[in-house]
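Provenance and format

Records in this collection were gathered into a single text stream. Each protein contributes a sequence line and a token line. The two records reproduced below are adjacent in the stream.
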Amino acid sequence: MRYSAIIGRHSAIRSFVNGLWLVALVHSLFWSACKNEPKKIPEAYLELTTNPEIARLTQLIEQDPKNDSLYYLRAEAYYQLDGFDEALADLKMAMSIDSMKPQYYHLLADVLIDYARPNDSKRAVDILTLAAQRFPERIPTLLKLSEFQLIVRQHSDALATLDRIFRLEPRHPEAFFMAGRIALDMGDTLKAIASFKKSVQYDAENADAWMFMGRIYLNQNNPLALQCFDNVLRVDSTNLEAREFKAIYHKVQGNFEQAFAIYRDIVRRNPDYSNAYFDMGTIYLELDSLSKAYDHFNLAVKTDPLFVMAYYYRGLTSELMGNLEAARADYVQASKMSPNYPEPKEALERLNRQKPK
């Protein structure tokens, strides 16, 4: 940061310069968010203006316009409804009143990363970098910074941020968890597993670490994956994703009955869990039980109308059953929904060779 030489000299100067930095940054973020943006869809705007929580907070702000926490709470409510411009405006107000609340920086970064405009990811990291300078020993802020640095693939910066945490708390389980995620993103599964193991060593209830470790073992066809997913379920018995991955392990191993038993348990718990129907469909397809395969791909599409692969596989099953027009319709649908997905296009070309339009 270009002010680093200045801000190291005196705490008063540091506070003043950081204050100027913040005002300029928030100002630029606020106004850039308002420029050249398409007008809101009327329904979305109506939701923002009629939301009872936002209405309640607006009334409180009118009664107490200098209360920064009210602006923050309303920004949070706007953010939950994808009202990004409104959230940015309220955060600007909150931070102009009190710039020493770390949660304000966190929410501002969340808004920016989800806004998904050019350079917003970098701005989000800049915001959290500033927060980490202002609250240098606040571990939740350092963890969030490392996570955002990972999102933008600044691996070395993320690791440097974790080093700051380890100097403060050498056995911090979330820091080891983040180290594992960074190593995994860099393609180093050995380091990733070692870090996840450290995380669960210091916090056996870290379900996310168990889940990541289980998925690595699953990709390696290692039976330790089942132990990891069982640990996830020990922490949270309602976790359907862990059950799904256990079923996938059995499916890959050819233990179809065990896989079916888990998938059926999943859909009993949640009848709209489309992945379970899809995976059962792929097993039936492998077993040449085409009618059952079609029915399960059909259920996957019904429970998730945006499930591109389910359309493709339903089309493939229809083609194998000789229903070429139904197959064509599903291939066309999959191609429209995901133009970069090559299999539906190749399937359409194959059908065109068999039966010209």
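Adjacent record:
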Amino acid sequence: MTKTEDLFEIGDPVVGRFRCDACDLQVESPSENDGVLVLGPCPLCQNGTWRRV
């Protein structure tokens, strides 16, 4: 049985920490202003899906 994770895609506005679903690079939403991060492609592998940490 596999665990189903919620995946986020490019353009999704998010708050918190996320890891690239392909290469595991972590990104974090900024602490200043409203703290919202709009997900883009992974800077390492250009993958477009992210999972919440």
